[in-house]
Specification:
By secondary structure, the chain is α+β, with helices and mostly antiparallel strands. Helix content is about 65%, strand content about 15%.
Length: about 120
């Protein structure tokens, strides 16, 4: 990532280095979890193919760990999405290029992407 800012978003507004660092940190966390999931899946598959009762029993815990990791990844992506939406909202203030601004009933703005025809 070059420079301390990223331009070209929301009417050419600037996104500060802190946001980019946050994104980078989150993506590194996600990649680490996905790498761990790959190893878990390989071990689960080996245990399943072995048909050894102790290995199959171990799979229960491995599958739980895999599910928890997936929840963590979903949470990280949800946090990234919310952070990005807040940044775009703050930099575009009323710009309707690609998003619809609407209230979710609790006074919060929700973001929906408009698909081109």
């Amino acid at each position: 990532m070059e420079g301390d800012s990223f331009s070209g978003m929301a009417n050419g507004g600037q996104v500060d280095n802190k946001l980019i660092q946050t994104f980078h940190k989150s993506f590194v966390q996600v990649q680490s979890i996905l790498d761990q999931n790959r190893m878990l899946i390989n071990e689960i598959n080996q245990n399943h193919e072995s048909r050894v009762p102790d290995n199959l029993t171990r799979n229960v815990g491995l599958i739980r760990e895999l599910n928890n990791n997936i929840r963590r990844v979903v949470g990280l992506y949800a946090d990234l999405s919310a952070s990005f939406a807040r940044t775009v909202d703050a930099s575009s203030e009323g710009d309707s290029s690609g998003t619809l601004r609407s209230s979710d009933g609790a006074g919060r703005a929700s973001q929906k992407r408009v698909r081109p025809c």
